[in-house]
Amino acid sequence: MAGAVAVTGSGTSVRRIAVIGGGPGGLYAASLLKRLDPDREITVFERNAPDDTFGFGVVLSDETLGGIEHADPEVYRALGREFVRWDTIDIVHRGRTHTSGGHGFAALGRRRLLEILHERCAGLGVGLRFRTPAPPAAELAAHHDLVIAADGVHSATRTAHADAFGPSITGHRNRYIWLAADFALDAFRFEIAETPYGVMQLHGYPYAADASTVIVEMREEVWRAAGLDTCDPAESTTRCAKFFTEALDGRPLRSNRSSWLAFRTVTNSRWSHGNTVLIGDAAHTAHFSIGSGTKLAVEDALALTACIEEQPDLPSALTAYEAERRPVVASTQRAAAASLRWFEELAHYVDQPPRRFAFNLLTRSRRVTHDNLRLRDASFTAAVEEEFGCPPDTPPMFTPFRLRGLELRNRVVVSPMDMYSATDGLPGDFHLVHLGARALGGAGLTMTEMVCVSPEGRITPGCTGLWNDEQAHAWRRITDFVHTSAPGAAIGVQLGHSGRKGSTKLMWEGIDQPLDSGNWPLTAASPLPYVPGVSQVPAELDRAGLDAVREQFVAAARRAASSGFDLLELHCAHGYLLSGFLSPLTNRRTDAYGGSLAGRLHFPLEVFDAVREVWPQERPMTVRISATDWAEGGTDAEDAVTIARAFAEHGADAIDVSTGQVVPEERPEFGRSYQTPYADRIRNTVDVPVIAVGAISSWDDVNSLLLAGRADLCALARPHLYDPHWTLHAAAEQGYTGPGAPWPLPYAAGSRTPPTGRTDGPKPRLTLG
């Protein structure tokens, strides 16, 4: 957290400062800058009166308060006298209340927060101009050394200089309204109301001894169905109180010029322009469900002040401010986006078992996890684990899971990873060591890379195959090793055809780049090259070609069965042949295999049915899909649900939910566990198990996803490249020694963390204050 520092660097060069907006961020920045240099001339322009304020209570984290304490103890002490503190969260759903403790919150009224900051600014000599709209930022910038634009989500500064700031504003699907109750709730309360119009939710928390903030939220279609779109503010307030009469104990709600809003996520490609800088909601917004708006604005003010004092000139200071804050804000916005989406999709979760629902809500942003929730409230977490079915002293990831006749000893999957190390499709010693090591490493299921069904279906010359018996014999050597040397471990094969993404160089020689020589002809749903002007143009498969490809999959499946694989996965993702049929961006056919999604599903389902017919009935079969193309006009989450349902109805035992890699112009929203919301959506909409994949990196993530009901299995790729024994080490780190993660007998002596040299010095014998 940035704090106050000595007056050095550029502090003396920034003399005249204008602040646009008198919210917490703008006021706090003004007070800090004035405190550090009393000779500065600082003016805050606020169009409203000093006692005007929107909203009711604000929540600040211990981290933010720590920064305030170091930067301005006087403000910290004033806030401390006002705070209402509590540490429990109540989740009320279908008449049952589940309470989780140990969370730690501090809140106060927004009006009181502003009064404290007004008093501090006035005492320091900051000019406060209330009921005074600020002049345009460009005009202020001409006569001031620094202009701080703290003018909120509807920032006029950002709009006027959009070409410089590069704003992006995204609307969302829920409507919400800020209200208040004239009594103090005794916990942070989430309450779900299943009404004739649809699902509604209440977010409530105390902010004074006699007052609570109450936010009512719902999908826009529910809002309209309830007639709230035609209500005046008073009627909306009355009706919201009736929807949540139990939470309010029959007491009324009140508003403060409250209106129904749709949240907007604001980002900017740059936060400064010349000597004008954005802070708070003008620069970025985060959904209220993680309570970060005021927190981010105050932290922006702290960081901006510190950078101005530390850097040699203003341009360097503004660059340093953005470099410091942008990663923090991006992380918060990712968490806020996950929370926002969870509440948008709330209707999909209401049928979950009660404790799972509560755990799912608490971990929705992925910032609260199984492990830290267990530290906060062990009894609550133990009850969730019991409802999940964890055996005693067993983490969720080590509970077994059955797919048809295959029982997996744990929920960890080594995700398919292309190794590009075969010759003529033949897996060799490298594949034996690679796959054998991961199976020995404790995973319940180890998957091969995409195994190609024909020479023309390879991605690169280094890809493995199952188009001849020699390859099948080589794979048998690997499955025998896994079954013999890692008893209880399962190994699965992923069958696929490269389609238009074939005949390319090895990944480390140029990913998706065509071979310099020795190319083979490509086929696809439509004659569209993967990278226009670079990739080969594939031939569109005709009836004979479709039949031939289908039979190649069938023949490969027969060989996979004889090779001893326990599970078969059909690769319908990442822009390869079958995926190319599913996406409207890659399938432009006008026959029965194109057009609508039902038509685009036709050939992948035809292949699935043919493979399922020859694959042993007792062995499970899964399908990997790209749940979104991350591109306009492509497959989206709604399509993914339809695709998953179609495969489930045809007998798929699980859906492996990946995303993207279908078109090169994709724009993924990378981040921790960034693909798991798509698995979550499918699992809680379609009656089919799902495998989640995508930047799942820790065993805590795995446990959290499983307990929340977002996935049944978790597939990890890069963590298993970093550590082939990732699963065994996860067991050791959790103190688990049960049957879900047995150490191979030759490795048993290594099942404890090796001792290391001492790194701490002797403790001081005496400490002087």
UniProtKB/TrEMBL annotation:
CDD domains: OYE_YqiM_FMN. Gene3D superfamilies: 3.30.9.20, Aldolase class I, FAD/NAD(P)-binding domain. Residues 397-731 form the NADH:flavin oxidoreductase/NADH oxidase N-terminal domain. One of its GO terms (molecular function) is NADP binding. Residues 145-333 form the FAD-binding domain. InterPro entries: Aldolase_TIM (IPR013785), FAD-bd (IPR002938), FAD/NAD-bd_sf (IPR036188), OxRdtase_FMN_N (IPR001155), YqjM-like (IPR044152). Residues 743-769 are annotated as: Disordered. This is Salicylyl-CoA 5-hydroxylase. It comes from Streptomyces filamentosus NRRL 15998. The lineage of its organism: Bacteria, Bacillati, Actinomycetota, Actinomycetes, Kitasatosporales.
